[in-house]
Amino acid sequence: MSKTNESRVVTDGQVVSLEYTLTVDGEVIDSSEGHGPIEFIQGMGNIIPGLEEELYGMKVGESKSVVVPPEDGYGEVDPDAFQDFPREAFPQSIPLEPGVTLRFQDEAGNSHLAVIDSVTDDTVRVDFNHPLAGKELHFEVKVVGLRDATDEELMHGHVHGSGTHD
Which domains does the chain have, with CATH numbers? Predict the structure, then answer.
C-alpha cells in the first residue's frame, strides 16, 4: 500500500517535480515558469547539493525560499580555472572581448563553456569556472509532485520521460 501523493514528503529515491525561480544578485537567472516543473530523483545528486538538502521533508504543494551559499552550489571561484592562450589561437570570427562565451573541446571530446576574462595584445585569458561559481543562489521552490522512482530510473540515476510510468 503506497502513501497518497498529498501525505508524502521528499525523501531519497523519489521523483520530485519542482517549480522554481533562481535569482542571483537580484536578477532572475532561471525559472521553470513557462517550461513546466523540473523532475529529478532526490538523493542522486541531480541538482546542486545545497538545494537538494533543503527539499527533504517538504510536501506536495509546499513552497519555500532557499539561499544556497557558493560552497553548496557551484563552488567558489577557482583561480586555477583561468588559462591564458595566445591571441593568434583564436579565429578572426570570434570577438576577443571580456564576457564573450566560448565553447572548448577537450582531448576526450567533451564540450566545455568558458568566458573571456581579459585580453592583452598577446594573450586571451579564459575563465573555465561555472558562470555561477562564487555566487549566492536564491531559490523560490514549490514541490508540485512526488512519486517513487522506478527500479530502472534508480539504476540509471535519472528520471525517464514524463508520463511513461505510473
Answer: 5-74+134-155 (3.10.50.40), 79-127 (2.40.10.330)
